[in-house]
UniProtKB/TrEMBL annotation:
GO terms for biological process: proteolysis. This is Peptidase S1 domain-containing protein. The lineage of its organism: Eukaryota, Metazoa, Ecdysozoa, Arthropoda, Chelicerata. InterPro entries: Peptidase_S1_PA, Peptidase_S1_PA_chymotrypsin, Peptidase_S1A, Trypsin_dom, TRYPSIN_HIS. Keywords: Disulfide bond. One of its GO terms (molecular function) is serine-type endopeptidase activity. PROSITE patterns: TRYPSIN_DOM, TRYPSIN_HIS. Gene3D superfamilies: Trypsin-like serine proteases. The keyword tRNA-binding does not apply. Residues 1-98 form the Peptidase S1 domain.
Length: 98
């Protein structure tokens, strides 16, 4: 397996990443997500074992361009939702700016 890019677990079935990481691959490329290791090169024992999860769908922002890296956003939908032992990013449900 080849490392492409990092990402953040948004909820139990979606990972947010950067669109430029996937721009060079064809639309039918298959991707997987490794959950359970916070740092790619860190080989210390993790609180959760690493596991590969298949990606069902890749969504790249319609306005993404490689020229300026504008709208550099991708969402990966996993084939199966993760179990509740995984903790997604903590995102407020309100506008923190007021």
């Amino acid at each position: 397996m080849k490392f492409v890019c990092g990402g953040t677990l948004f909820d139990l079935q979606h990972v947010v990443s950067a669109a430029h990481c996937f721009a060079r691959y064809s639309s039918n490329a298959r991707f997987g997500v490794v959950i359970g290791n916070q740092y790619r090169w860190d080989k210390r024992p993790n609180s959760q074992p690493e596991k590969l999860h298949r990606v069902k769908q890749l969504f790249v922002h319609d306005g993404f361009t490689m020229e300026c890296y504008c709208n550099d956003l991708a969402i990966l939908r996993l084939e199966m939702p993760l179990d509740s032992t995984h903790v997604p990013a903590c995102i407020p449900h309100y506008d923190p700016a007021g």
